[in-house]
């Protein structure tokens, strides 16, 4: 019998994940307020419109073996973040815990913004979290809601996500802008396709009856200074840096994410560092000058 995965907040990552699961023979249901984007996708994902904070709307959703909560806030403000993360996730958990057929596992997609470390420290799943901003605090509240819930679940904290259409850094470099070399500001990244790959991998483990940790850190295998990443991009784009970015970067956290737990679970990265990942984005996005014949 086909297993069913319900993807709540089925945007870019959810759609990429859904395609993978469909290819593996699963039934995939994608939930979002506006299903027009999903309807236009040739993905085989069943699209359902629902408000994740409305109990009546959630009651109409089908049973599922796996829930993946990957919603995003409509705006960068406290009200939108509260609705999207703790309130939405708690409403979903309440709905599915009351059903005769409860899901076998729930995944909540979180962020490394819950860490407050900013001096290049190495962080993993056991490191303390003390977010100062409302976004990290509300994300952490949602994490705890799942970890403490009766339904079995895992939180996946993704680092900075890049990939097709997520090319802000490339555009900054193409304008000649680059981060300073000193002090080193470490950045942690994961390609969109590896986000989907990590979730598909963990879903497979859950459906196979494997015991999962309550928390995974989803970041590639090579934390790197932002200056190094941007200098590498500049070489690929054959542009010269003419401006050093300063003030916005000083407010950024600098830490090095350790993905050992994820690797020990058996996951193999498609793009283990920014070099492989950005090479794909540069090529597929048409950023590179054509080779001279």
Could you explain the architecture of this structure?
The strands form five sheets. The protein has a seven-stranded parallel sheet with strand order 3-2-1-4-5-7-12, sandwiched between helices. The chain has a two-stranded parallel ribbon with strand order 6-15. It is globular, with a radius of gyration of 20 Å. The mean pLDDT is 92. It has a single domain, classed as Rossmann fold (3-Layer(aba) Sandwich). It is of the alpha/beta class and 293 residues long. It is built from eleven helices and 15 strands.
Question: Which helices and strands, and how do they pair?
Answer:
Layout: E1 4-8, H1 12-23, E2 27-32, H2 36-39, E3 46-49, H3 55-59, E4 66-69, H4 78-97, E5 105-111, E6 121-123, H5 134-147, E7 153-158, E8 160-162, H6 168-174, E9 177-178, E10 186-187, E11 189-191, H7 192-207, E12 215-218, E13 224-225, H8 226-237, E14 243-244, H9 247-250, E15 255-257, H10 260-264, H11 274-284
Parallel strand pairs: 1-2, 1-4, 2-3, 4-5, 5-7, 6-15, 7-12, 8-11, 9-14
Antiparallel strand pairs: 10-13
Helix pairs in contact: 1-7, 4-5, 6-8, 8-11
Protein name: NAD(P)-dependent oxidoreductase
Organism: Halomonas heilongjiangensis
GO molecular function: aldehyde dehydrogenase (NAD+) activity
